[in-house]
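User: I'm curious whether this sequence folds into something compact or stays loose and floppy. Could you predict its structure so I can see for myself?
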Amino acid sequence: MGVVTKVLAVSVVLIAIWFGFFARQYAAGGAVNPEWLNRSLAGRTAIVTGGNAGIGFITAKQLAKQGATVIIASRDEKRAKEAVASINNETNSNLAEFVHPLDLSSFRSVRDFVEKVKDRKIDYLINNAGVMIPPHAQTEDGFEIQFQTNHLSHFLVRLVLLANACSSPNCY
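Assistant: Here's the prediction. I'll summarize afterward.
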């Protein structure tokens, strides 16, 4: 066996061990430091896109449990208001709220939403909403719907909120 063959064999074994270790870690799932789930977020404000269902709903509920004001950003006003009622009921608070519909497939809707929240100090922006494998279509803005909904509109929300925040003397 030549030197190159031995080095290649050792490399393959090391890569297999490395892959096995990280695959096992990945399969075990993530762990959250329990202290983070008990930290007070009183006085903080969060926007959670897609906060009316799934992971977004769970995230919004946890933020409210920790005392943060949570703005549910959703295109479906009825489902968003149901989520707000559920979160407020489960947390015995009025910390969850629905301000204005946010349809991420429309830049106009994004700008209308940001106009409603621009005067508030936003501490956390959770970009959770998205679509997966929708039928091929273009938005009114001319982009493929999945690309605009999952990427461009979230960036626009962040960009406009940041621009508004930085127009104040307390921009950080």
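Summary: The chain has five helices and four strands. The two ends are 61 Å apart (CA to CA).
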